[in-house]
Design brief:
Largest sheet: none
Strand content: under 5%
Shape: globular
Distance between the termini: 37 Å
Number of helices: 20
Radius of gyration: 23 Å
């Protein structure tokens, strides 16, 4: 992979990557087709590997470096950085309907795909091109501080909370029909499990408060308690996890990860690593309100040494916002400092690496990883795997993978729950529930799974689970 031309890496939100970049915007896969493409038979693909057969990269698009949005149908799929694995020999397959389109008659609001490089709807305006050193710019800040904004340039806009993480945003809709269907499904002898799946599998998180309150008002019963009485096993676990909503479910998972003997590190990483500042603040507030303890205090008492310091940085919610550009000067400084703290010396300055990766946005981490491999001819992920171990290694690798390709990260996570003898059912339920809230992202994860493993994710899940549990898991993916 060649280092980009002079001028360095373009700003995230400013100019598009130059030819030679090896990484796509995270999680954006072209549509798939039910039959067909994927890797050659019997050849699984590596995490984030590069496919062949797409059109050559042309000049940078005039609208700038893409945020975590959709791929440009006219430019083809940009190349990816392959931390491990061999390149694919097949193009991405098309799908019958656009990613993010909900199933027919779904109560979940339709989400439209945005063109490559466009800002997500309802979030922040596109970032304007920003010069590095315009006349009158303030002096350079110390290393590690956010780079200075050019004179007159707009400030980075905060990333809004994800749906379900702002308690002030509640959908106003008539939940009477849904509440009555749920009560009918559980009333009397026997339970209509299919009706429970049909109503709850695609309920928007901002509709859940109205559904639960309407059920309570009309039937004088707790919906969650009724489901716990009428259902069992992993089917019950899935329905209750959905009913809590994404924020309360994250809080519940954190308590599960931290209580008792030992820490469930993978669950802790799933919930906290790679979160926006707004979501992190919402999680900390909800945890305090639910358990009357601070999340920071519980993490501090459960972890030790430098891993606890890393999580203190993560919980501080001081990351660069998604709209913040990746200034070439800052990227070069980060790359040099990461190398100095790892491969360039005997011993590793672990906290230096933690400080950089925990404070940068996903887009900035992606550009840093590209620049690191261009300069030192080794993937940043491989450096972390070589220099770190244990829980800290897992958390840092997850940061890099989240920045590189969030959908591929989630596809790999789901396969980790299913591979080998036995299924890690609890983790499979929690991860699928967490993914399913964003219908567009579900489509991207399915595409990523097919690219990496050459299989259909829905069929893979069907092969691992059965019964009502299977119906619920499949419904969340379709």
């Amino acid at each position: 992979m060649s280092y980009p031309p002079q001028g360095g890496y373009p700003p995230y939100g400013g100019q598009s990557p130059q030819p030679g970049y090896q990484q796509p915007p995270p999680g954006q896969y072209p549509p798939q087709q039910q039959q067909g493409y994927g890797p050659p038979s019997g050849q699984p693909q590596g995490f984030g590997q590069q496919p062949q057969g797409y059109p050559p990269q042309g000049p940078p698009p005039p609208h700038g470096y893409p945020p975590q949005g959709q791929y440009n149908q006219h430019q083809g799929y940009p190349p990816q950085q392959p931390p491990y694995g061999a390149p694919s020999h097949s193009p991405y397959p098309p799908q019958q309907q656009p990613y993010g389109a909900p199933p027919p008659h779904s109560p979940y609001p339709q989400q439209q795909q945005q063109p490559y490089g466009a800002s997500p709807q309802g979030q922040y305006p596109p970032q304007q091109h920003q010069q590095q050193h315009p006349y009158g710019a303030p002096p350079q800040a110390p290393y590690g501080a956010p780079p200075p904004q050019p004179y007159g340039a707009p400030q980075s806009m905060p990333t809004p909370p994800s749906p379900g993480y702002d308690p002030n945003r509640v959908a106003q809709f008539d939940a009477t029909s849904s509440a009555d269907q749920l009560r009918k499904a559980m009333k009397g002898f026997g339970t209509d499990e299919s009706a429970l799946v049909r109503v709850l599998a695609h309920m928007h998180p901002e509709q859940l408060p109205a559904l639960k309150s309407t059920y309570q008002q009309r039937h004088h019963r707790s919906l969650e308690d009724d489901i716990k009485k009428e259902c069992s096993g992993y089917f019950e676990l899935g329905l209750v996890s959905i009913l809590r909503g994404p924020l309360a479910q994250d809080v519940w998972c954190l308590n599960r990860a931290l209580k008792g003997a030992g820490t469930k590190e993978s669950l802790l990483d799933d919930v906290l690593v790679g979160r926006s500042n707004a979501d992190m603040r919402a999680i900390k507030t909800a945890y305090q309100q639910t358990y009357h303890r601070s999340l920071e205090g519980d993490v501090r008492s459960d972890l030790s040494s430098k891993t606890e310091r890393l999580y203190s940085m993560i919980l501080a919610a001081n990351r660069q916002e998604d709209s913040a550009p990746a200034y070439p000067q800052q990227v070069d400084a980060d790359v040099t400092e990461l190398h100095r703290a790892t491969e360039a010396k005997a011993g590793t300055e672990q906290l230096t690496v933690c400080s950089i990766l925990s404070s940068r946005s996903d887009g900035q981490i992606r550009v840093i990883a590209q620049a690191y491999e261009s300069k030192y001819r080794i993937a940043l992920e491989k450096v972390i795997l070589k220099e770190f171990s244990g829980h800290m290694e897992d958390a840092l690798v997850r940061m890099v993978r989240t920045g590189a390709d969030r959908a591929m990260r989630d596809a790999v996570d789901l396969e980790e729950c299913m591979k080998g003898p036995g299924t890690k059912d609890e983790m499979l339920v929690w991860r699928l529930v967490r993914i399913h809230w964003d219908r567009a992202h579900v489509g991207q994860v399915k595409g990523a799974y097919r690219v990496k493993y050459g299989k259909d994710l829905v069929q893979r899940v069907k092969g691992e689970v059965s019964g009502d549990y299977e119906r619920l898991m499949v419904a969340m993916l379709e």
